[in-house]
Amino acid sequence: MRDPLSPDWLAALARYNRWMNERLYALVATLDDAERKRPMGAFFDSIHGTLNHLLVADRIWLARFRGTEVPDGQLAPGVMALDEVLYEDFDQLRRERARTDEELAAWVGGLTPEELTGPLVYVRRGQRSESPLWWSVVHVFNHQTHHRGQVTTLLTQQGHDIGVTDLVAMLRAEAAG
């Protein structure tokens, strides 16, 4: 693909990201801590572990997008590993998820077409990486969708139904006012 997605389309993806996270966290909040943290064989072990991973990944990417200086040995300020559990307490994890979704949406909302076609350069574990910014922005939202799908599967295995998760459902609701 040669042409990046428009800032308006990326803003829609940021809204969808927040919309789905709010719905997912509302359902997960009805579970007790043992259900959230029960090892279920997922890549990040549990519902809680997977939700933590998503927050970790978004914070890593936000640091890269903002050009934040990252201390040696860390992936983002305060983040040491992709499977790190930043918040054992679910309520704190939920608050931080909401805060990070707001930060991501605000950052995406300020992007211009020129910025999207420009390079994103960062160093990860001593390796320099460079690609058009829009590749990484789209990746963030795709990554969220991938792992939210894992969480919805874990919820289904525990007998819980998140309901419709389709982007088009959110867009239709917005269009209806």
Provide structural commentary.
By secondary structure, the protein is mainly alpha-helical. The chain has one domain (7-107, 118-176): Four Helix Bundle (Hemerythrin (Met), subunit A), CATH 1.20.120. The protein has seven helices and two strands. The protein has helices at 7-28, 33-37, 47-66, 90-109, 113-117, 133-157, 167-176; strands at residues 119-124, 127-132. A two-stranded antiparallel sheet has the order 1-2. The chain is globular. The two termini are 33 Å apart. The model has no long low-confidence stretch (mean pLDDT 94).
In short:
The protein is built from seven helices and two strands; from the N terminus they run αααααββαα.
Summarize the helices and strands and which ones pair or pack.
Elements: H1 7-28, H2 33-37, H3 47-66, H4 90-109, H5 113-117, E1 119-124, E2 127-132, H6 133-157, H7 167-176
Antiparallel strand pairs: 1-2
Helix pairs in contact: 1-4, 1-6, 3-4, 3-6
Distance, first to last CA: 33 Å
State the order of secondary-structure elements, H for helix, E for strand. Answer: HHHHHEEHH
Number of strands: 2
Integer average pLDDT: 94
Query: Gyration radius, to the nearest Å?
Result: 17 Å
CATH superfamily heading: dinb family like domain
| CATH top-level class | Mainly Alpha
Kindly estimate the percentage of residues that lie in beta strands according to DSSP: 5-15%
Q: Kindly state the percentage of residues in helix.
A: 55-70%
| Low-confidence blocks of residues | none
The helix-and-strand class reads mainly alpha
Number of domains: 1
Please tell me what the overall shape is: globular
What is the name of the CATH topology? Four Helix Bundle (Hemerythrin (Met), subunit A)
- Strand ordering within the main sheet: 1-2
